[in-house]
Amino acid sequence: MNPVMNVEEITKTYGKKGEKQYQALKGVSFQVQRGEFVAVMGASGSGKSTLLNILSTLDRPTSGRVEINRKDITQLRKNQMADFRGREIGFIFQEFNLLDNLTARENIALPLTLRGISAKRIDPLVTQIATKLDIMGILDQYPVSISGGQKQRVAAARALVHEPSILLADEPTGALDSNSARELLQTMAKLNQDEHVCVLMVTHDPFSASYADRILFIKDGKISHQIVKGNQTRRFFYRELLDALGTTSD
Amino acid sequence: MLFKLALTGIKSRFKDYFVLFSGLMAASLSFYMFLDLATNPQFLKSNVNLGYHYTSVIFGFGIVLLAIITFIYMIYANRFLLSMRQRDYGMFMMLGARNSRIALLIFLETLIIGIIGTLAGVILGFGVTWLVAKMIVKQLGLTITNFNAIYLPAVLWTFVFFICLFLLAGAWNSHKLAQSPVIKLLNEQQKPISLKKHPVLTAIEAILGLVLLAIGYWAMAAFQKLMLWSIPIALVTIVVGSFFLFDSLLISVIDWLRHRHQILYHRLRPFTLGQLKFRLRDYTRILTCVSILFALALGAITVGINFNTLKEQAKASTYYDGVITTSKVDLHKELSKLHLKKKIDYQYKVVSHQLYVNEQTLAANPPKTQIFYLKNGVQSYRTAKINYESKKGQSSEEFKFLFPEGLVVTSSHVVPAAQFERLKAPIKNVTYLQVHDFDQDYPVLKKIMLKQQRADPSQTDFYTFTKPVVYQLGLNIESGFTFMGIFLGLAFMMMLASMLMFKVLSGAPSDKIRYQMLSKIGARRSLLRRSMYQEIGLLFLLPGLLGVVHVLFGLQFFKSLIPQPYHEIWIPFLIFILLYGGYYLITIKLYDHLVIKS
Ligand SMILES: Nc1ncnc2c1ncn2[C@@H]1O[C@H](COP(=O)(O)OP(=O)(O)O)[C@@H](O)[C@H]1O
Ligand SMILES: [Mg+2]
Hints:
The structure holds two protein chains of two kinds.
Chain A (H helix, E strand, L loop, with lengths): L4 E10 L7 E11 L4 E5 L6 H8 L7 E6 L2 E2 L5 H11 E4 L11 H11 L4 H14 L15 H13 L5 E5 L7 H17 L4 E5 L2 H4 L4 E6 L2 E7 L5 H15 L2
Parallel strand pairs in A: 3-8, 3-9, 6-7, 7-8
Antiparallel strand pairs in A: 1-2, 1-4, 4-5, 9-10
Chain B lengths: L1 H11 L1 H26 L1 H7 L4 H43 L4 H42 L11 H28 L2 H5 L12 H23 L1 H4 L3 H30 L1 H4 L4 H38 L2 H9 L4 E3 L7 H6 L2 E12 L2 E5 H6 L3 E8 L2 E8 L11 H4 L10 E5 L1 H6 L5 E8 L2 H18 L4 H4 L3 H40 L1 H13 L4 H30 L15 H28 L1
Helix pairs in contact in B: 1-5, 2-4, 2-5, 2-6, 2-20, 4-5, 4-6, 4-20, 5-6, 8-10, 10-12, 12-20, 12-22, 12-23, 13-20, 20-23, 21-23, 22-23
The structure holds adenosine-5'-diphosphate and magnesium ion.
């Protein structure tokens, strides 16, 4: 079976030649299989966001390849990149997820309108995803008047409404209280299990990471090791994860 | 140290500041230009030797208007400055800089920018003033002489005015920033706006807006009935009406569109409309202001260009096109250039302060004059014969004034040819000229008058009432008005357009985040740009359109002053469309630079 995502030896160096340069990624390789929920964990400054920006075509790697659905995204032109993002990728970020001047409904519909899908088909699709994420009641409200947890659900709905190949999340629970964070993570895990949505989440928080099937640890721009959940419960996995962190932080 | 920090602040964001600088330069430039015109004594004296007082009052009024507009404009420019800097200042504060220090820093920065901008504007103003004055003079064939492009008092006052403004702005900025919590400075974008509005109230507001506008327009047209009342009525109703219209009708239309998903769900349209709705809430005041200023500016230019009643009235008020009173100069060359229709000769003699006119010459060509009357409240003239026969020995004043000595003689008499012969005095001649087309022959007629006047200065008073001189006077006053109308109009235009520009650009920092987000979810740049062009385009278009409607109705007001206020109206409209369009292009270019490119 083909992996959804295949990352080969990507490096990223910030700063122009001749100026002060900083290598944020020093050769990162991994694969994400269809239907997998993968977390990339690392301390602040370890290169997580840099990695995610490259995977999501927002930035280009200095070297290396990234394939999504067997397509090399590092070779795309600007417009192709934009189209690719609109078609294949869904995003959730820590903050600034929603457009504050659009209602929740319009926010969710945006990826569909951008792809030129007819208005008739958009409404049922929005309703469908909103039902799954339990946000039907707030669809006509503006982001300012809904809670942080609801905002991230709307963001998730927007990220998933066009059925992307992969959902990318950068610290999605970073700005949430623990209850809302747990709810969002449970929702993501459920979507992953029931709908087989493929998720790649970047986080520094072990609790969030424990919802994944597999965790990649990133340190100083490199993948240091990984742990797999396998058949154990999340609780045990969380403990194993904390143990792993305890041994590697020395 | 602080001074250096403020300077580096300016240096580090030079491109953003460039926008601000050019705006400030435009402001000080136009202010200086107008002040120069209004206070330049040589310009005023040589142009408007009659009605000097009246004209200077109007120029003064122009300066006051310009000062007010500059003031409002500075508020927007200042907001733009704040929007650019507040994150940086928030940062300084977070790092532990004292409030008072920051306040001083902001104050200094505002002042430095202001002084540099004013200086550059005034220096540029020298050249531009000279050029524009020359261009307008040439284009319109006006007669403006002795114009000083560099006039020290105007320079001084421009500086006084702008430095006062910047002191105010600096004080305001430092007060505002020092008062706000750091967190607010760092996340300025997150201000919730109340979006709920009662639909019935909105409908009432929209209807009220339309009704008020209708009343205002009616008040302008009904100047005859309302007289001076029509100005305050129109001003209040049109301003309030425009405000209501922007506040309700447009947003209702957008809301209506947003509920029609068939229309809404098309590419970036949800975003464009959402942006517009948010903007309109925030823009109601400035859009109202811009629409009114737009109307004033366009009106000033239109009226300025079409203000040719004085000249026309001057032509209509005298019957003959020219006169020859002296034989001391040779006028053969000039006369041969005229397209003469008629040349009328009257013979007279002056005997001991009494005027005697040869009846024979009068009978051959009965003298005529123009009589003033009101036609439907409009000043008009009609031609009438001067009745010289009725009271022999005691002729009318009008009749007396046909002759150069008419001003000094005690009485005048019309006598038969034989009796005229017998009078012991030299025969004098006065020759009246009529041409086919006064406008065409005006330069030659003027030359004839000037030559005679130079040869015989004692008759200057008599010439005052001849057509070329009256016409010249009307032309002079008109030139002043036209010049002022165009100048004020252009200055208003520049101010209002850059006001709008600054308002739009002030939103750039928060819009940047929105556009980045759209880009992340897969919107192509071209799509982002198109959305931006449409959004900003509408913000420019809406007040422009309303302003045009205001003008079209408002010109009714000038009907008594100008017979054809709508004559060649496309000229000022074209000028405006070009200028306004230019500002729009600059704005989207800068916006693109601030928001999408970076
Ligand atoms: N645009 C950039 N220019 C230069 N350095 C950058 C840039 N973005 C990130 N970095 C540096 O790269 C490193 C990794 O950053 P990032 O990927 O944001 O880390 P994380 O998300 O794991 O906290 C950091 O040391 C950061 O300073
Ligand atoms: Mg990060």
